[in-house]
Amino acid sequence: LCQMQVDEPVRLPRLSRAAVCGGTHGNELSGVYLVREMLKPENRKEDGGPASLLMLLSNPRAVQQCTRYVDTDLNRCFTHATLNGPASEGAPYEIFRARELNNLLGPKGSRAAVDLICDLHNTTANMGLCFIAYSDCDWVCLHIFRHLQKQMPDTPMRFIHFDVSTKESYSLDSIGKHGFGEFLPFIGPQPHGCIKSNIYTAMREGVQHMRDWVSCFNSGESNVSMAQLPVCRGFKTSKCFLSQDRDFCLLRPGEPLFQTFSGETVKYQGAEALYAFFINECAYYKKGIALSLARKRRVSVPSIPSVSISSRFIYIYLSM
Amino acid sequence: LCQMQVDEPVRLPRLSRAAVCGGTHGNELSGVYLVREMLKPENRKEDGGPASLLMLLSNPRAVQQCTRYVDTDLNRCFTHATLNGPASEGAPYEIFRARELNNLLGPKGSRAAVDLICDLHNTTANMGLCFIAYSDCDWVCLHIFRHLQKQMPDTPMRFIHFDVSTKESYSLDSIGKHGFGEFLPFIGPQPHGCIKSNIYTAMREGVQHMRDWVSCFNSGESNVSMAQLPVCRGFKTSKCFLSQDRDFCLLRPGEPLFQTFSGETVKYQGAEALYAFFINECAYYKKGIALSLARKRRVSVPSIPSVSISSRFIYIYLSM
């Protein structure tokens, strides 16, 4: 699909089944509270969006404990290997839950999988609203992104591309129809276990605009979009940050990057100016990842179903 | 002591034993990293401060797991009842640890207790550097506070008085010599489980200024100080916050306070304009406390050992 000529309009099937998930990490509260709110009977209005819109709390046990996960990170359990491996009785809770979700929303890689999965996350980094997707030619996802950019001009918004194969993709959104509409909106900064009204409101607005776009798309109206995508290289350190809150600012060689606990400054040693993001994401301390880096590049997005092409800067993934 | 005439200079014994504690809550990382840094041999310099300065990680198991506590909140375990009650084998880990710490730094209420306990905390609220003490006439503590205010003029700083009796006082700092030098500097905003360089640096600087003041005090030089103290009333709710980050701004009757998840605004219904703090502190969600309120009042602080009196606005505690 990615090799197709972008000046040809793309015809895509209707998005008849979609899912909005919150609480995949139980202490990322915006999605938890938003899904709970949307599940209230008075809010389950029909708006011409997907014929079937499923709202769910992905990891209810972790939500109850207000912790990222109970036994292991649920959002790393959706590889083919983990979903299809032997299930022993003492396996982590999240392995069982991942299989349940795969039955409900997948099976991953099959025609039965839902058409669109939007999995809501928070970050302690100052990343604004950030889409992360495994594909840089997921037109549905890119068009939704562009629609949100237009509708929410005051919210900083980026599209990040993680270049991981379907087989190796590990997150909940990867069990949706591959190549279309699987994305993780991250929004921050917000401490895990906390909820801030501005972050919650932006997420609620974003989800509503996504539903509006799907509704418009399903009705056959055309939309033109474009996007920005990166992928990231992790630093194996978690010193203090001078770059705090400077997500998506250009980091130039020789610029101050870290501050050690004794007060010394460590400079960025790379040869190329790059964009830092996920700066000081709390949940990545354990992995020793202090920040991620991205190169910006331009992608072209075809119109749906029949309009002109447009192009924009995107962020390129840098493998480790 | 509090009834004494403030125009009489106060003569106090030397502060010969002091403790700086971090990690009483294992996911409040500024204190954890600062204590670790200060424990390094190259940083254990003699600077004429307390004859014996003990640095310790209060809850090493919680620190290891990067969680507030393992079984129960350690910083609620230092009441007389909990420290002296019967110890069953299946009791929470923190009860045992509280007793260990009481043996090391206390016993609470005894002459053997250390002269000064400074227990380092973080908050997700936007509180700057905030001293919390059980006394509004703890001259040592007030003088240290005033010294920090002078030395760090760019750091917002407040002194909060929690009017709790010695017997009912529950936090680690309460096992130091009662009425003198027991305080919890809170500093924020910082997500729990994260470390920000500006917050870490301010805490390090604050602890150094405290040591300098103690050194100066022990050498017999005089210091004049004053302070600001509040105490708080908790709201039994944890809706979204419009007042986010507005800690210590005056909250007037009828002003917007909360936003509900459906988008409605809830106004402050109190009859009196008060100061809100601990706004959206993550760890207080479980208790249903969304913020605390304080009234400001003026306290007078006598000189040590022989100088003039000064007075300042302080915050008054409001009981629930």
Automatic annotation (TrEMBL), chains A, B:
EC number: 3.5.1.114
Binding-site list for Zn(2+): H25, E28, H121
A GO molecular-function descriptor: aminoacylase activity
The keyword Metal-binding belongs to this UniProt entry's keyword annotation: yes
Keywords linked to the UniProt accession: Cell membrane, Cytoplasm, Hydrolase, Membrane, Metal-binding, Zinc
SUPFAM superfamilies linked: Zn-dependent exopeptidases
Membrane topology: Peripheral membrane protein
Any one Gene Ontology cellular component term annotated for this protein: cytosol
Catalytic reaction annotation: an N-acetyl-L-cysteine-S-conjugate + H2O = an S-substituted L-cysteine + acetate; an N-acyl-aromatic L-alpha-amino acid + H2O = an aromatic L-alpha-amino acid + a carboxylate
Location in the cell: Apical cell membrane; Cytoplasm
NCBIfam families linked to this entry: PRK02259.1
Family membership noted in the UniProt record: Belongs to the AspA/AstE family. Aspartoacylase subfamily.
Name the record gives this protein: N-acyl-aromatic-L-amino acid amidohydrolase
